Structures are given as C-alpha cells and as structure tokens.
Amino acid sequence: PMEMERPRRVLGVYDGHNCNAALVEDGRLVAAVEEERFSRLKNHDGRISDFGGPLQAIKWCLGQATGPIDAVALALEKPEDLHRAALLSWMSDIGGGSEKRLVRSIRGKPASLETVLQYPLVTQQHRTETLLTLLSSTGIDLDSVPVSHVTHHGAHAASAYFTSGVKEALVVTMDGRGDDLAGSVMTGRDGHLELLEEINWMQSIGHLYAAATVVCGFKAMRHEGKITGLAAQGKVNESLYRALHQYFESSEGTWTTIGLSRDISVGPYPDSRFIQQIETVKAHTQRVPREDIAATVQSLTEDVVVPYIGERLRSTRSRNVLLAGGLFANVLLNQRIAELGNMDYLYIHPAMSDAGLGAGAAMSHFYQHHQYDGWSLDNVFLGPSYTDSEIQRTLEDSGVGYQDLGANIDERVGQLLAEGSVVARFTGALEYGPRALGNRSILYQTTDSDANDWLNMKLKRTEFMPFAPATLSEHADECYELFQTVDRIAEFMTVTVPCTARMKLTSPAVVHIDGTARPQLVHRERNPSLHHVLSTYHNLTGIPSILNTSFNRHEEPIVRTPKDALKSFFESHLDYLAIGRFLVQDRRGS
Fold this sequence. Notes:
alpha/beta, Nucleotidyltransferase, domain 5, 8-stranded mixed beta sheet
C-alpha cells in the first residue's frame, strides 16, 4: 500500500560516541536525546559492550511517537559500501608511496592479511546486527518496518540541511572521522543533497585538533573546547606552525597531503593509530607552552578550513552555508567562517557532534520520500520533560523544603539573579545537543569578573572558555557587533561574536580575553519563560544578559530528571533551584 512507501514516522539511531536516537514525524524533528542523559556516562559510546547501545534513548523516542514507527534509519554506511570505500582509500594510501608497512596486528592481536582486509566489513556488520537486536528488543517488528543505512557524513549533512529553513545551500561536514571519511562537501537544491567531494580521513584536521588536545594534557573527543579557550591566552609559535602545516599543504583551497597518518602503518577503517598521531604532534611541541600549542593549532585549523569553504562558496555561487560535524563545535572557527562575508546565512546544526546523527539519519530517510518544505528547527527542547506533579513527588520523596510559586516562578528567578544569587533552573524539555539553553541551566549575573574562578570551582570544572551569556534578542545590538549572517545561530551558542564596549564593561564574566562572547539570543516568541526571567532581571538592573552554563557537575552529562537536578544542586552548593514551578533553597550558605 501507498502508506508503506511514504513513511510518516521515522526513528533515527546512532550507536557510536555520543550514541543517540531521534524521531522525525511529518518532516519535523520532534524528539531527540543522547543515551548519556539516561546512563549518566558522559559521551556514552554504544560500541563499548559494558555500556550497551542507545536503548533508553530509543525507548523514550518510541514513547513520544503518535503511532507506530514506519521506518528506521541507522547512521551507519551499508557494510559492503563501507568495505569497498575503506579498501580503496587504504590501497591508494599504500600505493601513493606513503611508506606504510602492512598492518600485522589489530587491537594487539596478530592478524592475517585476510583478517585485515575483512576488518571494515566485519566491524560494520557487527555494529549493524547489534543495533537490530537492540531495536527488536523494544518491540519494533523488523519484518515489517524497513531499516535503511545513511552514511555518517550523509547524516551530518542532512541534519544541517533539513533543519536549516533554506532550500539552496552549500553544505560542509567535518569531524575526526566517520565511516572512513573526515568530511564532505555537498550542495542542497530543492530538497536534494548532491555530493561534490569527500575528504579522506587521513587528511583529517579534526584528528590534528584531537591530538593537540591530548598533548596539552586533556581528553580527546571531549576536551577540544578547552584548546579553543586556551588559544586566546597564547600566541602562534611560528616553527610549530610550519612543522604542522606541512601535513596540510593546501593549494587552491584544497589540502592535498596525507595528514598526520603519513608513514604510520594503518590498516583499513576502522583501524586507527591515534597514539602514533599524538606522538607525531608531541615530537613537534617540545618546550612549547600549552597556551601557544593551542593558539598555533587553532590558527592552523582556521587557515586550512576557512579558505577551503571560501573557495567552495565561490565555485558553487551559493549564498547559504550549512555546517555539521564535530569540528564545527569550534565556535571561534565558526566566527572566522562568518567573517568570510559573501553569504546571507550561516547555520550550524545545534547538535553538530555525533549527537546529531540519529536526527540526521531520520531526516535523510524521511526526505527521500517527501518534498522538503523549508522547515527550520526553532528550538532544541526536544528531550524528556516532567509534569509539575512528577516534580512535586520527587521533592516530597526527598524531604527538601520548597515553595510553590505557580506562575510567578520566572519573575522570582529574575529577582534572585538581580540580588546576586546563583540559580539552577530545571524546566520544560531537556535540550538536544551539547549546550544547555535555559531549561537545564545554572544562571548567575554577568557583572562579576571573578565568576569564572569561583563558580567553576564549585562545579569542579577546569575551563579556559568563559561562561556564555543569554541575552534578550531585542537588546543584541547593545551587546554584540552581530553580523546579520549569524543572527539565527546565535540562538544556539554555536558562534563567537565581538562584544561592544558597553558589554565588556557591564558583563565581564561572559567576555573572553579576545573580546568575544558566545551568546544565546533569547526571543520572546520562541522561549517566553526564559525571556521573562531575563526581562525581569533587565528591568531591575539595566543589564540585558545573564550568565548561562550547563546544569551538571564536572564530567557529568547535563541533568535529565528532577532527581538528577536535586542531586547535582546539593552537591554543587548553589543558592537556589527553580524546578518546574517550585523553588528550593540551599540554606547551608555558600
């Protein structure tokens, strides 16, 4: 029947790092959540057998659907397609005179040539089968519900394009590596994405950034943001820049050389010798202070990526640039891309990391069967939410004292902030993606220049990025030198912008050493309750911005449940918790 051919409800699933699930109904992203928010394991990787796949995320998304699921989309390339691509890129690498030795072992075990050659196929088949088992355990009938595969970068591209609100665009994806690629360039026209070029994983600039993160003493795939923050405190080291640049010689805005994997024995995907890449970077960074390593790697990343995108903007004559993939979590890089000019609109998918792959896969599948109408994602409140009675039950069970403020809760939060209190806020649906945007946030005034030290200490965080501001959108011009281009993405904290003199004066807690901030612009019509908090604060203080940081303890995922919120609140010794319409005070004092 016709019904079967044109799915209405598509479940998207990703099983890797930041594994997740998402639900698309009638072309709209209506639910999306990462497994880490349930398991409390930061960056939960579903391939690690002790953790398991995104089971709770899948179950929750199924519970949000208005009826049975019509299709499932996995953000994994078809095993046989991946196998072919991986072997081709590996062969061309060995054949390209790169002094590679044939890999003799995989994960520390000796391996025959046959094992090595089958590796990409076997791994991807295993990932697929594990997901299918997981899906049928939730009651999905895989005999009648079709399952499709969407490539890693195809899903990233779809997540950006089908939530952007524009039909014509240049779409660029870049990350460390996914399905044997480090990136892709596509054009979107009238609801169709067309692949222009692929970036081989061996040329991954994401890998350079991750390796530098480790060399500076932090965790790869988690702490890259610390390097972006540190960069402003250092200066570019010329000899280090030259040494690293040789891995990314670029001509005509394309970088040609094999990146850090040159001369390392690497088997076909997903074999990785990341340790050796780290050693390569480390060898060049002897005696260079880490602030300068950060500044150098940030600068090199911008110098490679920005002209690359600029060149493709010119050749495609596009006016809209859409980005996804973990590299574009780099808010400073995004600012540099915006500064290219010659574009009307820059959009970064709010969950640009692999957390957005379930959504991208579901969108991609849906729009293979339907015409894209130019829908845009207005907010990221797509996760679990709790009723006031559920919240009240948790409060009663825990025995804490609380006030029921009803409809006055937002006003009260604004007043408390004006009095200088630190307020944790738990309301509505959980945010999708890496940023808390007011529903699971810790709020404080922006006037205290020492906030970065003491508030981070309370939360046990080491951060070199300052906190980010939430600002009333109608006052954006007083605070930021905002280009029209980034107006929209500034709602999602995905780009830095230069601050005005007034902003630097009134809100030092959220302005970085380089004079930029990473704002969340709050619009009355899209986020009325946070807007109310901010307006109340603004009326009392004359300042249109407050500090907004994610509600979680160090190295923990953002809180999901009222119970998570209470635990995190009391462990962090904050002043107040606004939870639903209730207010809890920590009377132990700071």
